[in-house]
Amino acid sequence: MFTNCHHTSSTAMELQYTGLAHTIQTAAIAALLFAACALLPKLNYRSHLAKLPVFGGSASGEKQRQAYLNSAKKMYLDGYEKFKDSVYRIASSDGEDNVVIPLGLLPELRKLPDDVLSFPRAVDKTMETKYTKIDTESHLIMHSVRSDLTPALGRMNPIIRQEVNTCVSKYLPECNDWTEVTIYKTIVDIVAQVSGRVFVGAELCEDPEYLDCATNYTLDLIDSVTAIKKLRPWLRPFMAPRTPEIRRLRQRERRATEYLYPLVKQRQDAAKDPNWEKPDDMTQWMLDRSAGDNIPVEQYAKCQLILIFAAIHTTSLTATNILFTLASTPEYIGPLREEIRSVIVEHDGNITAKALQQMEKLDSYMKEVNRVYTPGMTSFTRRVLKGITLSNGQYIPPGVIIEVPSQAIYNDSTYYPDSEKFDGFRHYKLRRGGSTTDHARNQFVTTNEQNLAFGYGRHACPGRFFAANEIKMIVAKMILDYDIKMPDGLTERYAQIEVGRSSLPNPTKKLLFKKVD
């Protein structure tokens, strides 16, 4: 009996072990299949990517990542010479191979829909939105800038000019004699208030709390992106949220949202009164455009932060680059001052939209600064969502970031004769001596295959017309009222700070200003 029991028990255990082994085997096979399914797209992606020629080394190495951070400009210039008419890949600082597109393929790429090439998905990586939390797909902002702000510039220009005059006097010191000015910080303060006048109206744009929120949110966001880019990609999910920069950004967001919330709520409540006179500013245009969409008040406040960043950051960098260049090319100040004065006299002391268009030498100078000291080495950055076979037969797999080497194009003497030389009136001469097409292609705001500072295609910067007017008025005011030069007898322009694909003016550097007698 005991023998039978023992035999029965052994049989049961064998069956149990057999069942367990079968379960483990099944689970193992399922796990392998799952892993294979997960790996296949990656292997497929890598095999397609491997067919494209590569400049430099693999994206996986820290040595290559550091090389990109320190020498991206040279890499793109050398890559352009080597692969002028071909797609190639380059290891970026994000642990990915970016695919660089030659200029000749741009027209066919611009025709592709957003579900094939995504601008917002590319910005997600550029601005590290996983950690910075900025919204890259706010259709409300884009629509309002295109359909409300740009058409309003004609009537807004006198208001912008008045605010520029107020701010230049407010933020620059007396300058009765040669006076040192940390110009980047000064420009940021001016742009914050001038843009604020258009975004939130006359009263709030001068509020110290609004100005603190606007300028410091912009600086904190840039500091956060810079800090994240310095981290190794595999460390970012763990380390990025804990960096001092991201923590400071979260605090700034909370304070800014708390400040902007009452403004939006007050406007929404006031709109219920049929006799209420609506303000003529960006906040109101966005509220009107989205009426009935039930967008939370907090979302409007966040839209304001995105607007603030977009307006202050690029405008301040561009204006600072112009002034740094002007101080080191003083021979241009006289002719520019003469043009500005004569145009203003012709328009009875006003700076109208037409007057701004007639400042062709100033427009040319600004455009040449953007060509030589362009804020980024690349443009037309897109995330590929669906694989593309190009007209030259090369295939770009989904998931990759593509970009165009704009700095290298600006350095190509085929498109810009004597490209190594700074010629402030290069575009003025082309406009004056050329056809109607030449006149159109050589304006500061123009976007095309050889003019990529504001992007290209349907996602070219919609706010560039507002930015151009604002920059032109600020620079014109400074040229009219001040002599400008480099300090300490320096004649060479300050070098740019180049990190990865970014090229920025040094924010700590000073210029000398003296009021014109």
Architecture overview:
This is Cytochrome P450 monooxygenase-like protein. It comes from Macroventuria anomochaeta. This protein has 517 residues and is of the alpha+beta class. It is built from 19 helices and 13 strands. The chain has helices at 2-50, 62-82, 106-110, 119-126, 129-132, 139-171, 183-199, 208-230, 236-239, 244-270, 282-289, 297-328, 333-346, 353-358, 360-372, 406-410, 426-433, 436-441, 464-481, and strands at residues 54-55, 88-91, 97-100, 117-118, 179-182, 379-384, 388-389, 395-396, 401-404, 482-485, 497-499, 502-504, 510-515. The strands form four sheets. Strands 1-2-3-9-6-4 form a six-stranded mixed sheet. A hairpin with a 5-residue loop joins strand 7 (388-389) and strand 8 (395-396). Helix 6 (139-171) runs parallel beside helix 19 (464-481). It is globular and about 90 Å long. The model has no long low-confidence stretch (mean pLDDT 88).
Compact overview of the structure:
The protein is of the alpha+beta class and 517 residues long.
Whole-angstrom Rg: 28 Å
What is the number of helices? 19
Rough outline: globular
Helix proportion of residues, in percent? 55-70%
The tally of beta strands, per DSSP, is: 13
Q: How are strands sequenced across the largest beta sheet?
A: 1-2-3-9-6-4
Query: Low-confidence spans: pLDDT under 50, at least 5 residues?
Result: none
How far apart lie the N and C ends? Answer: 121 Å
Oligomer: single chain
| Biggest β-sheet description | 6 strands, mixed
**Strand percentage, roughly?**
5-15%
Write down the overall mean pLDDT.
88
**Sheet/helix structural class:** alpha+beta
